[in-house]
Amino acid sequence: MLGIIAAVLFFIAFLINAADIATNDVFTSVNFMLIGLMLLALHVAGIGSGWAARGRRR
């Protein structure tokens, strides 16, 4: 789930950069890319990937 959100944020950052949209200091393309990278790192680390099935071994 976090990987999908990261991809959406990367796409928004690309649109802001490609269309040369003037935004304030909070919603810059660099900030969207950094948030996307953070979410991608959390996804790769296994955070937010769902519940792991923990069964008993016999």
TrEMBL record:
Upper lineage: Bacteria, Bacillati, Actinomycetota, Actinomycetes, Kitasatosporales
From the Swiss-Prot or TrEMBL record, give the protein name.
DUF4383 domain-containing protein
Q: Which residues cross the membrane?
A: 34-53
Instruction: Identify the keywords attached in UniProt to this record, alphabetized.
Output: Membrane, Transmembrane, Transmembrane helix
Query: Which domain of life does the protein's organism represent?
Result: Bacteria
Q: Origin organism of this chain?
A: Streptomyces nigra
